[in-house]
Amino acid sequence: MSKIFCLILSIFLWIPGAFSQTIIHPDSSVRYLTEGVSRDSLRSYVRTLVNFGTRHTLSSQSDPHHGIGAAREWVLSKFRQDASYSRGRMTVRIDTWMQPADHRRIDRPLPMGNVIATIKGTDPDDSRIFMVSAHLDSRCTHIMDSTDAAPGANDDGSGVAAILEMARLLSRYPVKATIILVAVTGEEQGLFGSAHLAEEAKAGNWNMAAMINNDMIGNSVSGGTDKHDNTKVRIFSEGIPSVETPQGERLRKDLSGENDSKSRELARYIKTIGDTYVDNLDVVLIYRRDRFLRGGDHIPFQGKGFTAVRLTDFYEDFDHQHQDVRIENGIQYGDLPQFVDDEYLRKNTCLNLATVACLTNAPSVPQNVKLDISRLTNYTRLFWQPPAYGKAAGYYVLIRETDAPMWQKKFYTDSTEIILPYSKDNFFFAVQSVGANDLMSMPVFPGIGR
Questions:
Q1: C-alpha 237: how far from its chain's center?
Q2: Half-sphere exposure of 445 (CA within 13 A, CB side)
Q3: Which among 142, 201, 340, 349 is least surrounded, fewest beta carbons within 10 Å?
Q4: 299 and 261 in one domain?
Q5: Residue 31 located in a structural domain
Q6: Per residue in 72-118, pLDDT tens?
Q7: Backbone angles phi, psi at 88, to 5 degrees
Q8: Among the listed residues 359, 217, 233, 241, the one whose alpha carbon sits nearest the alpha carbon of residue 299
Q9: Sign of CA dihedral 320, 316, 261, 444
Q10: Cis before residue 156, ω within 30 degrees of 0?
Q11: For 74, phi and psi rounded to 5 degrees?
Q12: Does residue 299 share a domain with residue 392?
């Protein structure tokens, strides 16, 4: 037995640091950044958006105080104000186009515009883009009603408030890769703004590493069931990629990778960031592309092959969502600002902020991660190549049992391969890059190789 033990031990020690399990230490600059998120600012943004009366996609484009046009110009002005503090790193624009009528929810050709703030990374060799979105438009009960009050405080004033607060803080915070913050339009009418932007990103061959869609992140009450909880937020991620190739399908089936798409690894990453940087917030993984039979602005990006997820309230309050503003049987209806939980919105904004701050300042993912299949043993050997962007000080190799939603153990190595005494039958594996600042890339689910 002693000879066998020594042999196994020598294999493990062949790779330096292979079995040192590591605790995540919060980065002080990221912690400082999240501490700057202001509930007062978020509340002010939401109330200003509500004061435009309606932000329906078909509402006024020219009224300076009322409608979608005025709201769009106000968001642009806020972005421009923040850009003045960025030392030239932040640029802003409205991307406009003419949307043809679909004779369902767009009854005439309509000018549309997405308000976009681009915060350029400080590393000229790093072409990665991380996008955070929310939708600017709102609606009331009837989808074609463009004149009645549609305050849209939570749907999606909360999401727009979050990206405005992120712009305020990130304009002063250097990041190595590029961040795009965008308020899209036409979501309620059919995801038109996000579809237009996803098409632009695909045609322009953008190196989009991750996209986070925030749609309703300020409500903590469950309508009809009288539950209240501002300690949980849902994240929706697709399992089987929308643009899976036949070759990808075969590999997924061979590896049982239905729960390890890039979007799902992003969701797990965001949950880890939440556990590390945001107190009293539990990120709940929902294994669905979006809510039951519904969709959001991340879906057009998934349809173009990008890694994208949706953050949204844990509960939905349907009395204050897609409702005309009224009092009926003593009940106040309508998506009004008094039904937005400012502290819950603050925590969800911190989650977004910490995620993009960590991702942009971490090295990119390890390349060509493979499981060695040259021999069938109860050990698992993984090998990979260094990241394309940034320098990795080392790597975490993650493992979990096949029925576990999150990675359960991690092992550190400064090599580009590792041997673990865990069977490929019983565990899933992934590898992520770690920078000198201890910031981590997203995990990469391995393919197979020899």
A1: 10
A2: 24
A3: 142
A4: yes
A5: no
A6: 999 999 999 999 999 999 999 999 999 999 999 999 999 999 999 99
A7: 85, -5
A8: 241
A9: positive
A10: yes
A11: -70, -45
A12: no
